[in-house]
Structure formats: C-alpha cells, structure tokens
Automatic annotation (TrEMBL):
CDD domains: FERM_B-lobe, FERM_F1_FRMD3. It comes from Salmo trutta (Brown trout). Coiled coil: none annotated. The lineage of its organism: Eukaryota, Metazoa, Chordata, Craniata, Vertebrata. This is FERM domain-containing protein 3. Its main location: membrane. Keywords: Membrane, Transmembrane, Transmembrane helix.
C-alpha cells in the first residue's frame, strides 16, 4: 500500500521539482541565468542578482519583464514568479533601477553608484533623461571620461566621439562641446569620480528618475506621466506642465483605462484624469504610483497601507508596497561597515548597446528640448542618406531590430518620447509603435492612431519643414481652418466652464448637498430591500423553515400584534375613508 501511495504521488512531486530557466539581463547588458521552481517567489531573483554583484543597497533596484502584449511589469517580490509571468518558458527579465535616489551623494558604496550610473547612461541614450544643451554636453563628457579616461591626442582622432552613440540626437555641435569638456575640464578624473559628477549633474534635471507612461489628458492631447522622488509629474510637448508633491497627493486610483490623481493644490481639491491605451497599462501605471508614493513619502515601512482602487460598491484592485522606504534605506546605508567590493566595469566596445549602433538606421526626432542645430553640411549628409530634403534637427542612430527575448530593450526604445517628442522611424521595427503597451500596426496608422492631436499632426509638421511654395500655401489654409476650429473649441469650453463655476460657487454647500443626497439614496435602497422582506414575513403563508422560526420568536409576535396589526388596521381604515369620500364627490 505504501508503494502504491508513493507511485501515486510521484507525478505531483516531479511537477513541483520541475526547474524553469530564467535569464536576467543586467544594466551593462551582460546576462546571468538561474533555475527556479514553480513556487519560487520574485524576491529570490532580486537576491540572486544582488549576490552576483555583492550588492547591499539593493532596495533601489527591481526586476522588470514584458508580457506577450508588450506591457511592462515590475516583478512583485512576494508572489510566485510563475504566476506573474504570462510568457512562455524560458523567462527573460531585466535588472533595472526602480527607485532613483533623491540624493545620490548619500549612497554609501561605489558599486551602487556605478549601477545607478549605468541606468542613467541608458536613460540618456533612450531619451528618458532630457536635458539642455550644456547639461547634455557635460553628461556626455562624463560618460566618455569614465569609459576612455583622459584625452590622449595620439590615441583619440578628431572624430573619436562619433564612436559613442550617447544620445538619440547627436549633432556635430554637441560632439565638439563634449570633446572640449573631455579635454579641458575632466582631465585627471578616474572612472568613479567621473560617474559621481554625472550623478550630481543628472539628479538636478526635471526628468531625473522619470519612467514615462504615455497617456491622453481630458482634451485628447498626448501626455507622459511619471513618478519621481519629489512627486507626480506630467510632461506635455517638451515641458513639464504638472508637479504635484507627494505630500499633496491624497489618492491614486484607476477604473478601466482611466487613471485619476486626487490631491490638493493651492488649498483647493485637484483631480487630474488621464486615459491609457489599455486597462493593463492603466493598472501598471497605478501600481507604479502606489509604490513610488509609499517609498518616498512614508517615514517607516510600518506606515505603508494596502491601497484599493475601488469605491464603496465595487471591490476593485488591492495592492501594497512590501519593501523598505527611502529613509530606512538611507539609514541602513550609513551603517554599512564592510570593505567596499570590487567594481568590475565594462568599457567602450564591451556593451551590446554600443556594438549594435554600428548599423546606419536613421530616426527623425522632432521637437528637441533644446535644439542643437548642426551645420549645413551635416544636413546635406543626412539628406543624402535619407533620400529626402529636410531641415529637421540632427538625426540620431537607432538600434536595429532586436532578437527574440529582448523585449525589455525594445520597450526602452519606446520611451524616446518622454518629453512629448514624437519619433518617426522608417524601419520595420518601429520604436514609436512599440511605445504603446499594445502595439498598433503601421498599416492602421501606427502611433498616430492614438497619439495624434487634431491641431498638430506629425505629417503636418513634416510638410511644414519643406520649403515648397505650394505646400506652404496649403499649410496657410490649414492653419486658418485650425485657428477657427480652436476658437470654436475655446468658446465651447469657456461656456462649459462658466456653467460649472455657477454650480460649484459654494463648495461647502455643494459638499453638504451631495452628502445628503448620498444618505437619502442609501436609506431608500435599504428600505427597498427591507420592506419587501418584512411584508414577506408578516403577510405571506410560505412555510419555509427559517421564516417559520422567525415567526415563532416572542419579539416577532410582539411586533406583529402590538405594532403591525394596529398600523395595518389604521392604514386600511384610512384608505377606505378616502375611497368613500372620493366616490361621494364623484356622485355629487
């Protein structure tokens, strides 16, 4: 019998012991692999990577993956990995910075600063960390100094910066400025010091730590939402249009594809509404917001509460950030007493990112944060490569299509639009299209289908950049129509706004009225349920066991004979009297 039991249970034991291969791509594009079981939780992979690096300040980092619908997710540490992954085995994930330190100078160990440097270098290249021309040149020079060391006239030809594809837009003017700073300002700095200077300059930028989420606001305009150590930010075009500090954010919630930020601004309640392309993207946005708010706002992890996206009548989604908060991480860092671990740096030519940039695939990137215009010769060269005559800002080099299993890098390409910049690619692999959590086929309109405003379309901007007089005349006519359309929309919005102001002039009165209406609605709802049930007990003869037991209780009998029967007779007499009076009035 015992042998039969063992034989019966052996298949389930084998399924529990089945190993699953996981590949984790690190910040320097190297990869490590490990095997997990079906019940292994996400924290195991985080610990595995941190042990590989000998990293102690690990709370800033996380593991990210992309599902088959191209939606990115952060791996939750307290849930089994297999239950989170929707893709087929083997799994491929990426180790990335999840929470950017508010003050990088408080990082204790050089290893942690180096990993943050690698993340910021990726952010610069993928267009997430936008910066003015002077800051861009300085950041580029710091990267070159950290990778190559001091400038050497014998080793470095005049165009040596061209080997570094640092930015999605890299002009000759920018390269010359990087060379000048590398030659004169950074000489003598070791790699660690150059990386430290990059962290110091980068953390003061508006887009530092922003992981952009593409959305549309209530007007239908494209916006990019992000969460930083300071608070919730919104970028539109190439400007930051909202900054709501964490102390002023009361609640983050979502319903379907709609994301709400409820807070206080200038002592008034503020509700910001945005629409994502899919419900999965909206839920991911909400989770990122909940985690960032808990990490940067709370003083202790014990203060973190479970957050619900629901209202009173619907369950909704529940989520809780389970790690340590920023203040606890800084305190723990200050107590580290060990010998600093050795930092193994990958220099120029060893990273897959740089090797892949030898392909001459062009991306036209419009509306830079601060245009760095190249010379006329540069435009002529790019025109010859592109086959088109254009006066666009400088062209950038884009990576070629990635192999299967590299979805995370593919998702990073889509973030080149962090500042509202719309990128147009001529390649089969379109970073612009992959920006959407659910990719849109180019034959159906691509990104323009979801992120095109009626006033300013990418196609119109391209036409405007040409100098053909006929096209210019058409554009003038289009502008006249657009202005008329905009004026009509502004008039309609002002009329709607005046009506809303009349309705909300006295905010306290409106709040009290709304509360009273809700109370009346709830009372009516309770009565609609309770009264039929009571009549069923009092008037029906249904012989059901639980109804019979209720009727036999002394309390029910007392209520029936002392209150209900007199009330019923009173109501019957009143109805009879009213009916007799009405008949007499009719006959008279």
């Amino acid at each position: 019998l015992r042998m039969k039991m063992l034989r019966f249970r052996s298949p389930s034991l084998r399924s529990l012991d089945q190993e699953i291969q996981v590949t984790i791509r690190l910040l320097d594009d190297s990869e490590i692999s490990c095997c997990i079981q079906r019940e292994t939780k996400g924290q195991f992979l985080v610990d595995h990577v941190c042990n590989h690096y000998s990293l102690l300040e690990k709370d800033y980092f996380g593991i990210r993956y992309v599902d088959p619908e191209k939606q990115r997710h952060w791996l939750e540490p307290n849930k089994p990995i297999v239950k989170q992954m929707k893709s087929q085995q083997p799994y491929t994930m990426c180790f990335r910075v999840k929470f950017y330190p508010h003050e990088p100078m408080k990082i204790k160990e050089e290893l942690t600063r180096y990993l943050l440097y690698l993340q910021l270098k990726r952010d610069v290249y993928h267009g997430r960390l936008l910066c003015p021309f002077a800051d861009a040149a300085y950041l580029g020079a710091c990267i070159v100094q950290a990778e190559l060391g001091d400038f050497d006239q014998d080793e470095h030809p005049p165009d040596y910066i061209q080997d570094f594809k640092l930015f999605p837009k890299q002009s000759l003017k920018l390269e010359r400025k990087i060379i000048d700073i590398h030659k004169n300002e950074l000489r003598g700095q070791c790699s660690a010091l150059a990386e430290l200077h990059l962290l110091q300059r980068a953390h003061n930028l508006e887009t530092y730590g922003v992981d952009p989420h593409p959305c549309k606001d209530f007007t239908g305009s494209t916006a990019f939402l992000g969460f930083t150590a300071t608070g919730f930010v919104v970028f539109q075009g190439n400007k930051r249009i909202h900054l709501l500090k964490w102390a002023d954010v009361n609640k983050l919630k979502f319903e379907g594809k709609t994301f709400y930020v409820i807070g206080i601004q200038k002592e008034k309640k503020l509700v910001l509404t945005f629409h994502t392309s899919t419900p999965a993207a909206c839920k991911h946005l909400w989770k990122c917001g909940v985690e960032n708010q808990a990490f940067y706002k709370c003083a202790k992890s014990s203060q973190i509460k479970t957050v619900s996206s629901s209202n009173i009548f619907f369950k909704g989604s529940r989520f809780r950030y389970s790690g340590r908060v920023a203040k606890e991480v800084i305190e723990a860092s200050s107590k580290i007493q060990r010998e600093p671990p050795e930092v193994h740096r990958l220099h120029f030519g060893q990273s897959r990112s740089f090797n892949s940039l030898s392909h001459k695939n062009l991306i036209i990137n419009m509306e830079p944060l601060v245009p760095a215009l190249p010379s006329t010769n540069e435009y002529e060269e790019t025109s010859a490569d592109n086959g088109k005559s254009t006066s666009l800002p400088p062209l950038a080099i884009s990576p070629p299509p990635l192999a299967e299993g590299q979805e995370e890098d593919e998702e990073e390409e889509k973030e080149e639009e962090t500042s509202g910049v719309l990128t147009i690619s001529e390649l089969v692999y379109n970073p612009c299209a992959s920006m959407l959590p659910t990719p849109v086929d180019d034959g159906q309109g691509g990104v323009d289908l979801l992120f095109q405003s009626p006033i300013q379309s990418p196609a119109r901007l391209l036409r405007e950049l040409h100098a053909d007089p006929d096209i210019q005349a058409q554009l003038v006519a289009e502008r006249v129509r657009d202005r008329a359309f905009e004026r009509a929309r502004v008039v309609g919005r002002s009329m709607l706004g005046s009506g809303l102001r009349l309705l909300t002039r006295n905010e306290r009165v409106n709040t009290c009225v709304l509360s009273a209406v809700r109370l009346i609605a709830m009372v009516i709802g309770v009565l609609l349920v309770a009264v039929p049930m009571l009549l069923l007990l009092l008037e029906s003869d249904i012989d059901v066991s639980f109804l019979h037991e209720i009727r036999q209780t002394p309390e029910f009998e007392q209520f029936h004979y002392e209150y209900y029967c007199p009330l019923r007779r009173r109501v019957a007499f009143t109805l009879y009297h009213v009916s007799v009076c009405s008949l007499l009035m009719l006959t008279s």
